[in-house]
Amino acid sequence: MDPDNARMFDVRDVRGKGKGLFATRPIPKGTCILSESPIINVPIYPSTSDLYTLWRNVRNLPDQQRQAFESLSNCHPYENIYTEYMSIVRTNCFSTYEDQASVCLDASLINHACDANSQHTWNHKLSKIVFHALRDIALDEEITTNYIGRENTRQERQVPLKEIYKFECSCELCSLPLALSATADRKVLRARKLWAYFQMEDGQKRHLCNPLQRLRRLEEISRHRAELGSCTQMHDAHVEASALALSHSDLARGKIFLERAYAFYVLEHGDNDELAPALQARLQNLPISECYGQSTRWQTDEADVPPEQSSGIFEEWLWKMRDDQPEPSLFANIWDRSTFLGINGLPTEGLFDVEYHQDASMGQSKPKRHWCFMAEVIDKATPGQLQLKVKDVDNRITGIFFNDRYKGAKLPDHPRKKGTVIVLYAQCGQSEAGPVVKVRDTGMMKTFPLSLSKVLGLSKRLRKYSTPQGELRTCHGCDEQGSLSLKCGKCGLFWYCNSTCQKAGWNDRNHKTDCKMLKDDNVHSIFAFRWHKFEEPVRFPLPS
Ligand SMILES: C[S@@+](CC[C@H](N)C(=O)[O-])C[C@H]1O[C@@H](n2cnc3c(N)ncnc32)[C@H](O)[C@@H]1O
Question: Which atom of ligand 1 is nearest to the CA of 17?
Answer without folding.
Answer: 22
